Every structure is written in C-alpha cells, then in structure tokens.
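Class, look over these structure tokens:
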Amino acid sequence: MAQIQALAFDVGGTVFDWKSAVRQEIEARAQDRGVQADSEAFAMDWRSRMFELVGQVRKGEISRMNADEMHRRALDDVRSKYSNLALSVRDLDEINQVWHRMPVWPEFPAALTRLQEDYRVVVLTILSFAIVVDSSKFNGITWDGIISCEFLSHYKPDAEAYLAGCRLLGLQPEQVMMVAAHPLDLNAAGKAGLRTAYVKPKLSEPPVPAVSAEPSPDKYDYNAESFTDLAGQLCK
C-alpha cells in the first residue's frame, strides 16, 4: 500500500466548533431583545437546511452557490420559526458571518503542528474559502493548503470532489488520507480510493445523513479518540 503523503481535513464540526459559535450569537441577540430563544434548535435547524441546499446544488436542482450563499439562504428559510427574535435582513447578514469566526477545538493546534512535521496537511471542505481562511486566522492556525469545493466542479460527498483534491496535491488517492468526524464523508472518500481516519466527534449534529450517520470503525484505516490521539498514531 502506498505511503500516506497528505492529510485532507474536513473542518466544519470536525476541527471548528460551528455550534457554539451559532448558539452564542443567537443567545446574545435574544438577550438584547429581552426574549427567549432555543439556540440549540436554531443552530440545528440552520445546519439541517444548509445541508438540504447542498444536496439540491449537487443534484442541479438549484443554481450553484458557495457555502456563504447557502448559509444565508438557509437563514431566510428558518427565520419564520423564530419570529420572536424579529430578525431583520441586516441581522441575518450579520449572523451569517458567525461561520467566519468559529472556534477551534482546543487540542487541535498542537496536533496540527505535530502532523505537519510528517505530512502535508490541507483542508478539503464544502465550506467557502473565505470561511476557512477567516476561521483559521481567528484561531491562529495555518494549513499547508485549503481546497474548497466552491472551486471544484463537485461538492463532497461526490467522488469527483475527493479525486480533484488529490489531483491538486499531485498525489494518487491512496497517498491521501481524509480526516473527519463525519462517517458519510469518510465512507465516500474511501470509495473514491482515499485512506480514511475517523476522529470521535465533539458535538452533536442534526439528524441528516451528511453529518449524523453511524460510524463504521472497521472500514477506516485509523480511529482516534482525539486529534492528539491521531497525531500519536500517525507520527511515530
């Protein structure tokens, strides 16, 4: 089997804590208005609707757009459920920027530094290039590269997205390992010929297949309890 040369990380929910960022934003706005809001439900509804839109884009049912545009459209679709927040268009535009300042899991920066000593470590994500650049800068982390599906002809989990990422790295699929906390992402990457590493998720996701499928540890090349654990397994 070919030696792994590069690690391709999913980031939304795997590396970046999208949920706490959204919840804090909604809780702050509810407090400012003196109303109650279920920030957990808001976050889950928004995330669920966004993945529905990703699916529609992949099927060609709606025009192609990047994650910022999908997040913004999803906000329009869920706003009516939270009418007590009285969110204006300006409010929605501002809330949409929360994805550009997602916090990183505390253990990740040190693990990333260790992994970069032995591998090329890049991002392969459905999120926009700007989201990853801004959230990475927000947390003071630097990647060897960022591959956003907005620049590819396909979104994950289409096989073409993974294969395009490998081509951009100048590597064969078996030389690249997809790292994610989402089983569907890893299952699709594995079918495309990539190696796979599952990292135990640190947050609950909405009940949509893209992010909530049950893991199959026996199918993955590596299974890790944490990023520190993964680095320990890969960097001997």
